[in-house]
Automatic annotation (TrEMBL):
<feature type="region of interest" description="Disordered">
    <location>
        <begin position="1"/>
        <end position="45"/>
    </location>
</feature>
<feature type="transmembrane region" description="Helical">
    <location>
        <begin position="108"/>
        <end position="137"/>
    </location>
</feature>
<protein>
    <submittedName>
        <fullName>Uncharacterized protein</fullName>
    </submittedName>
</protein>
<keyword id="KW-0472">Membrane</keyword>
<keyword id="KW-0812">Transmembrane</keyword>
<keyword id="KW-1133">Transmembrane helix</keyword>
<feature type="compositionally biased region" description="Basic and acidic residues">
    <location>
        <begin position="1"/>
        <end position="14"/>
    </location>
</feature>
Length: 141
């Protein structure tokens, strides 16, 4: 290839694409932080009184006041909804604990009843056998 063909080929390539055809991502190149970026906030002026006057003038505007009141009302509504949600979550947690305790009590009662049903006939049989042995020993002598 001659030089003119190579130059025209380079011009047709899309920006951000290497000669091999791979896309070069700009996010892969990290920007180094300079000392200027690390420095404290730069002062933008020494006219604090004028800034305060501008702030007072802007805050005195009825549109700004109405917008501020609307935002405050929305914030109160969001906080009310948040508190209500947290109360509901607490109630659900408490109900879950109460439900688990009730289930454990039911399981314990069922276990005791099952134990009594299984062991009671055995105990009665042993008691009757003991009484029979005592009767047999007393009558035999």
């Amino acid at each position: 290839m001659d030089k003119s063909t190579t130059e025209s080929h380079k011009e047709k390539r899309a920006p951000g694409v290497a000669e091999s055809g791979q896309l070069i991502r700009k996010t892969s190149i990290r920007r180094r932080v300079s000392k200027d970026d690390m420095s404290e906030n730069k002062p933008y002026g020494n006219k604090a009184e004028e800034y305060d006057k501008i702030c007072e003038k802007v805050m005195a505007d009825t549109g700004v006041q109405k917008t501020l009141e609307a935002l405050q009302e929305k914030w109160r509504m969001i906080m009310y909804m948040h508190d209500d949600c947290m109360d509901l979550r607490t109630q659900k947690t408490e109900q879950g604990v109460i439900g688990r305790r009730a289930r454990i009590k039911r399981e314990l009662i069922a276990l005791v009843i099952t134990y009594v049903i299984i062991t009671l006939p055995i105990l009665i049989t042993l008691y009757l056998a003991f009484l029979f042995v005592i009767w047999f020993v007393t009558t035999a002598s």
